[in-house]
Amino acid sequence: MKEKKMLIDIVNYNNYRNTIRCIKSLKNIIDEKELIDFVVVDNNSSNNSVECLEKEFKNDVNVFLVQSKTNDGYSKGNNLGIQYCSKHNNYKYISIVNPDTYFDQNVFEKILPILENDDELSMASCSVIMNGKWDIYKQSWRIPSVSEFVLNRSLLSKKTTAPLVYKCYKGNIVQTEVIPGSFFVIKYDDFRQVGFFDENMFMYNEEIVLGKKLKSLGKKAVVDLGSYYYHNHKSISKSEAWYNYRYNFNKALHDYDISYKTREYVCKTYYDSKGLIALKLVNLGNYFMLYTKHLVSYFKSLSYEKK
User: Fold this and answer.
1) Is residue 245 within 8 Å of 294, Cβ to Cβ?
2) Which of 29, 108, 149, 205 could form a disulfide with 144 if both were Cys (CB 3.0 to 4.6 A apart)?
3) pLDDT digits 0-9 by tens, 198-209
4) What's the whole-model pTM score?
Protein backbone atom coordinates (compact mmCIF):
# COMPACT_ATOMS: atom_id res chain seq x y z
CA MET A 1 0.00 0.00 0.00
CA LYS A 2 1.18 3.50 -0.82
CA GLU A 3 1.62 6.21 1.78
CA LYS A 4 -0.33 9.30 0.78
CA LYS A 5 -0.94 12.63 2.42
CA MET A 6 -4.68 13.16 2.03
CA LEU A 7 -7.88 11.89 0.50
CA ILE A 8 -10.49 14.45 -0.55
CA ASP A 9 -13.93 12.84 -0.28
CA ILE A 10 -16.96 14.21 -2.21
CA VAL A 11 -20.47 12.76 -2.37
CA ASN A 12 -22.43 13.51 -5.53
CA TYR A 13 -26.16 13.22 -6.08
CA ASN A 14 -27.53 14.65 -9.34
CA ASN A 15 -25.01 17.45 -8.98
CA TYR A 16 -22.17 16.62 -11.37
CA ARG A 17 -21.69 20.20 -12.62
CA ASN A 18 -20.93 21.50 -9.14
CA THR A 19 -18.83 18.43 -8.35
CA ILE A 20 -16.66 18.99 -11.43
CA ARG A 21 -16.36 22.70 -10.66
CA CYS A 22 -15.38 21.95 -7.06
CA ILE A 23 -12.67 19.45 -8.01
CA LYS A 24 -11.23 21.77 -10.64
CA SER A 25 -11.04 24.59 -8.09
CA LEU A 26 -9.22 22.29 -5.67
CA LYS A 27 -6.79 21.11 -8.32
CA ASN A 28 -5.99 24.73 -9.13
CA ILE A 29 -4.83 25.39 -5.57
CA ILE A 30 -3.06 22.10 -4.83
CA ASP A 31 0.53 21.41 -5.86
CA GLU A 32 0.54 18.47 -8.27
CA LYS A 33 3.54 17.03 -6.40
CA GLU A 34 1.42 16.57 -3.27
CA LEU A 35 0.32 12.98 -2.70
CA ILE A 36 -3.40 13.81 -2.67
CA ASP A 37 -6.24 11.74 -4.10
CA PHE A 38 -9.88 12.55 -4.81
CA VAL A 39 -12.80 10.16 -4.50
CA VAL A 40 -16.28 10.98 -5.78
CA VAL A 41 -19.06 8.75 -4.51
CA ASP A 42 -22.14 8.92 -6.68
CA ASN A 43 -25.16 8.23 -4.47
CA ASN A 44 -27.24 6.51 -7.16
CA SER A 45 -27.99 9.71 -9.10
CA SER A 46 -31.11 9.66 -11.23
CA ASN A 47 -29.52 11.79 -13.97
CA ASN A 48 -26.40 11.25 -16.09
CA SER A 49 -23.96 12.24 -13.33
CA VAL A 50 -21.91 9.05 -13.57
CA GLU A 51 -21.38 9.33 -17.32
CA CYS A 52 -20.40 13.00 -17.06
CA LEU A 53 -18.00 12.41 -14.18
CA GLU A 54 -16.39 9.44 -15.92
CA LYS A 55 -15.89 11.47 -19.08
CA GLU A 56 -14.42 14.44 -17.19
CA PHE A 57 -11.91 12.49 -15.07
CA LYS A 58 -11.22 9.34 -17.11
CA ASN A 59 -7.58 10.33 -17.64
CA ASP A 60 -6.94 11.56 -14.11
CA VAL A 61 -5.21 8.85 -12.08
CA ASN A 62 -5.82 10.73 -8.82
CA VAL A 63 -9.60 10.94 -9.12
CA PHE A 64 -11.56 7.80 -8.24
CA LEU A 65 -15.26 7.37 -8.97
CA VAL A 66 -17.31 5.02 -6.79
CA GLN A 67 -20.89 4.17 -7.70
CA SER A 68 -23.32 3.35 -4.92
CA LYS A 69 -26.27 1.19 -5.94
CA THR A 70 -28.49 3.00 -3.44
CA ASN A 71 -28.73 6.51 -2.01
CA ASP A 72 -27.93 5.92 1.64
CA GLY A 73 -27.20 9.52 2.53
CA TYR A 74 -24.30 11.76 3.45
CA SER A 75 -22.69 9.60 6.14
CA LYS A 76 -22.66 6.26 4.36
CA GLY A 77 -21.70 7.89 1.07
CA ASN A 78 -18.62 9.55 2.58
CA ASN A 79 -17.66 6.38 4.44
CA LEU A 80 -17.92 4.37 1.23
CA GLY A 81 -15.38 6.60 -0.49
CA ILE A 82 -12.95 6.38 2.42
CA GLN A 83 -13.28 2.60 2.65
CA TYR A 84 -12.74 2.13 -1.08
CA CYS A 85 -9.57 4.21 -1.29
CA SER A 86 -8.14 2.99 2.01
CA LYS A 87 -7.90 -0.52 0.55
CA HIS A 88 -5.19 0.73 -1.80
CA ASN A 89 -3.49 3.59 0.05
CA ASN A 90 -2.66 4.79 3.55
CA TYR A 91 -3.84 8.35 4.13
CA LYS A 92 -2.77 10.66 6.92
CA TYR A 93 -5.69 13.04 6.49
CA ILE A 94 -9.23 12.91 5.16
CA SER A 95 -10.92 16.03 3.81
CA ILE A 96 -14.70 16.02 3.56
CA VAL A 97 -15.89 18.41 0.86
CA ASN A 98 -19.41 19.20 -0.34
CA PRO A 99 -19.85 19.41 -4.12
CA ASP A 100 -21.38 22.90 -3.90
CA THR A 101 -18.18 24.39 -2.46
CA TYR A 102 -15.51 26.32 -4.32
CA PHE A 103 -11.90 27.25 -3.47
CA ASP A 104 -9.71 30.05 -4.79
CA GLN A 105 -6.90 29.89 -2.23
CA ASN A 106 -4.81 27.04 -0.85
CA VAL A 107 -6.52 26.55 2.49
CA PHE A 108 -4.57 23.32 3.06
CA GLU A 109 -1.30 25.25 3.36
CA LYS A 110 -2.62 26.70 6.60
CA ILE A 111 -4.79 23.86 7.90
CA LEU A 112 -2.44 20.89 7.55
CA PRO A 113 0.52 22.39 9.48
CA ILE A 114 -1.84 23.21 12.36
CA LEU A 115 -2.94 19.58 12.60
CA GLU A 116 0.61 18.33 12.07
CA ASN A 117 2.03 20.19 15.04
CA ASP A 118 -0.52 19.34 17.75
CA ASP A 119 -1.44 15.79 18.76
CA GLU A 120 -4.54 17.02 20.60
CA LEU A 121 -6.03 18.49 17.44
CA SER A 122 -8.11 16.17 15.29
CA MET A 123 -10.05 18.40 12.94
CA ALA A 124 -9.64 21.79 11.28
CA SER A 125 -11.38 24.03 8.78
CA CYS A 126 -11.47 27.68 7.74
CA SER A 127 -14.02 30.45 7.30
CA VAL A 128 -16.98 29.78 5.06
CA ILE A 129 -18.56 32.39 2.82
CA MET A 130 -22.08 31.09 2.29
CA ASN A 131 -24.03 32.42 -0.66
CA GLY A 132 -21.83 35.49 -0.77
CA LYS A 133 -22.18 36.31 2.95
CA TRP A 134 -19.89 35.83 5.95
CA ASP A 135 -22.01 34.92 8.97
CA ILE A 136 -20.27 34.24 12.28
CA TYR A 137 -22.96 31.70 13.21
CA LYS A 138 -22.14 29.64 10.10
CA GLN A 139 -18.43 29.26 10.90
CA SER A 140 -18.74 26.70 13.68
CA TRP A 141 -20.60 26.23 16.93
CA ARG A 142 -20.48 24.51 20.27
CA ILE A 143 -22.07 21.15 20.94
CA PRO A 144 -25.71 21.99 21.74
CA SER A 145 -27.18 21.20 25.14
CA VAL A 146 -30.21 18.92 25.31
CA SER A 147 -32.65 21.84 25.39
CA GLU A 148 -30.87 23.61 22.50
CA PHE A 149 -30.87 20.42 20.44
CA VAL A 150 -34.60 19.91 20.99
CA LEU A 151 -35.91 23.46 20.69
CA ASN A 152 -33.76 24.71 17.81
CA ARG A 153 -35.81 22.62 15.39
CA SER A 154 -39.19 23.75 16.63
CA LEU A 155 -41.37 25.50 14.05
CA LEU A 156 -43.44 27.03 16.84
CA SER A 157 -40.64 29.06 18.37
CA LYS A 158 -37.77 31.16 17.15
CA LYS A 159 -34.42 29.47 16.91
CA THR A 160 -32.33 30.18 19.98
CA THR A 161 -28.75 31.10 19.22
CA ALA A 162 -26.24 30.77 22.02
CA PRO A 163 -23.63 33.54 22.32
CA LEU A 164 -20.44 32.56 20.53
CA VAL A 165 -17.24 32.97 22.52
CA TYR A 166 -14.25 31.34 20.87
CA LYS A 167 -11.12 30.35 22.74
CA CYS A 168 -8.14 31.72 20.84
CA TYR A 169 -5.85 28.88 19.79
CA LYS A 170 -3.20 30.90 18.01
CA GLY A 171 -3.48 34.22 16.18
CA ASN A 172 -6.67 34.16 14.10
CA ILE A 173 -7.14 30.42 14.69
CA VAL A 174 -9.89 29.66 17.18
CA GLN A 175 -10.86 26.52 19.04
CA THR A 176 -14.36 25.15 18.62
CA GLU A 177 -16.42 21.95 18.99
CA VAL A 178 -18.55 21.55 15.86
CA ILE A 179 -17.38 22.32 12.32
CA PRO A 180 -19.75 22.52 9.32
CA GLY A 181 -19.81 19.35 7.25
CA SER A 182 -19.40 21.29 4.00
CA PHE A 183 -15.60 21.27 4.42
CA PHE A 184 -13.11 20.09 6.99
CA VAL A 185 -9.88 18.12 7.32
CA ILE A 186 -9.55 15.38 9.94
CA LYS A 187 -6.73 13.04 10.92
CA TYR A 188 -7.43 9.62 9.46
CA ASP A 189 -6.48 7.70 12.61
CA ASP A 190 -8.80 9.79 14.79
CA PHE A 191 -11.63 9.49 12.27
CA ARG A 192 -11.19 5.72 12.24
CA GLN A 193 -11.08 5.57 16.03
CA VAL A 194 -14.55 7.17 16.30
CA GLY A 195 -15.94 4.88 13.59
CA PHE A 196 -15.98 7.52 10.84
CA PHE A 197 -19.51 8.90 10.23
CA ASP A 198 -22.46 7.18 11.93
CA GLU A 199 -24.23 5.45 9.04
CA ASN A 200 -27.54 5.32 10.91
CA MET A 201 -27.94 8.98 10.01
CA PHE A 202 -29.12 9.70 6.45
CA MET A 203 -28.68 13.46 6.64
CA TYR A 204 -28.39 16.30 9.19
CA ASN A 205 -26.62 16.56 12.56
CA GLU A 206 -23.55 14.58 11.45
CA GLU A 207 -21.31 17.45 12.54
CA ILE A 208 -22.73 17.47 16.06
CA VAL A 209 -22.24 13.72 16.48
CA LEU A 210 -18.68 13.88 15.15
CA GLY A 211 -17.92 16.77 17.50
CA LYS A 212 -19.28 14.83 20.49
CA LYS A 213 -17.30 11.71 19.60
CA LEU A 214 -14.04 13.59 19.18
CA LYS A 215 -14.60 15.50 22.41
CA SER A 216 -15.10 12.19 24.24
CA LEU A 217 -11.56 11.25 23.15
CA GLY A 218 -10.19 14.51 24.49
CA LYS A 219 -9.56 15.80 21.00
CA LYS A 220 -9.99 19.37 19.76
CA ALA A 221 -11.11 21.18 16.61
CA VAL A 222 -10.06 24.56 15.25
CA VAL A 223 -11.10 27.04 12.57
CA ASP A 224 -8.68 29.32 10.76
CA LEU A 225 -10.56 32.61 10.38
CA GLY A 226 -7.80 33.98 8.16
CA SER A 227 -8.59 31.74 5.20
CA TYR A 228 -11.88 30.87 3.54
CA TYR A 229 -13.86 28.83 1.05
CA TYR A 230 -17.18 29.41 -0.69
CA HIS A 231 -20.32 27.38 -0.06
CA ASN A 232 -23.07 28.03 -2.58
CA HIS A 233 -25.79 26.33 -0.61
CA LYS A 234 -29.08 26.15 -2.47
CA SER A 235 -31.83 28.10 -0.74
CA ILE A 236 -35.41 28.85 -1.70
CA SER A 237 -37.39 32.07 -1.52
CA LYS A 238 -40.53 32.53 0.58
CA SER A 239 -42.70 32.31 -2.53
CA GLU A 240 -41.01 29.03 -3.50
CA ALA A 241 -41.55 27.70 0.02
CA TRP A 242 -45.25 28.49 -0.12
CA TYR A 243 -45.45 26.86 -3.54
CA ASN A 244 -43.90 23.71 -2.11
CA TYR A 245 -46.34 23.68 0.81
CA ARG A 246 -49.18 23.83 -1.70
CA TYR A 247 -48.06 21.60 -4.55
CA ASN A 248 -45.13 19.55 -3.19
CA PHE A 249 -46.45 18.93 0.30
CA ASN A 250 -45.77 15.18 0.32
CA LYS A 251 -42.10 15.84 -0.43
CA ALA A 252 -41.98 18.49 2.29
CA LEU A 253 -43.37 15.94 4.76
CA HIS A 254 -40.91 13.31 3.55
CA ASP A 255 -37.93 15.65 3.99
CA TYR A 256 -39.15 16.66 7.44
CA ASP A 257 -39.59 13.01 8.46
CA ILE A 258 -35.98 12.26 7.50
CA SER A 259 -34.83 15.22 9.58
CA TYR A 260 -36.92 14.20 12.59
CA LYS A 261 -35.87 10.55 12.52
CA THR A 262 -32.24 11.64 12.54
CA ARG A 263 -32.82 13.95 15.52
CA GLU A 264 -34.66 11.20 17.37
CA TYR A 265 -31.77 8.80 16.74
CA VAL A 266 -29.19 11.36 17.90
CA CYS A 267 -31.22 12.09 21.02
CA LYS A 268 -31.45 8.39 21.91
CA THR A 269 -27.87 7.48 21.02
CA TYR A 270 -25.77 10.52 21.87
CA TYR A 271 -27.88 12.32 24.49
CA ASP A 272 -28.92 9.18 26.41
CA SER A 273 -32.58 9.83 25.48
CA LYS A 274 -32.58 13.01 27.54
CA GLY A 275 -35.14 15.38 26.07
CA LEU A 276 -36.75 12.62 24.01
CA ILE A 277 -40.26 13.31 25.32
CA ALA A 278 -39.81 17.03 24.65
CA LEU A 279 -38.54 16.20 21.17
CA LYS A 280 -41.67 14.15 20.46
CA LEU A 281 -43.83 17.06 21.60
CA VAL A 282 -41.88 19.41 19.35
CA ASN A 283 -42.46 16.93 16.52
CA LEU A 284 -46.24 17.07 17.07
CA GLY A 285 -46.09 20.86 17.08
CA ASN A 286 -44.07 20.83 13.87
CA TYR A 287 -46.63 18.59 12.17
CA PHE A 288 -49.34 21.03 13.23
CA MET A 289 -47.37 23.90 11.70
CA LEU A 290 -46.66 21.99 8.48
CA TYR A 291 -50.32 21.14 7.91
CA THR A 292 -51.34 24.69 8.84
CA LYS A 293 -48.95 26.08 6.23
CA HIS A 294 -50.33 23.60 3.71
CA LEU A 295 -53.87 24.86 4.34
CA VAL A 296 -52.82 28.50 4.24
CA SER A 297 -51.01 27.93 0.95
CA TYR A 298 -54.14 26.27 -0.44
CA PHE A 299 -56.33 29.29 0.37
CA LYS A 300 -53.65 31.65 -0.94
CA SER A 301 -53.64 29.83 -4.25
CA LEU A 302 -57.45 30.09 -4.43
CA SER A 303 -57.31 33.83 -3.90
CA TYR A 304 -54.70 34.17 -6.66
CA GLU A 305 -56.84 32.08 -9.01
CA LYS A 306 -59.84 34.36 -8.42
CA LYS A 307 -57.75 37.37 -9.36
Assistant:
1) yes
2) 149
3) 999 988 899 999
4) 0.91
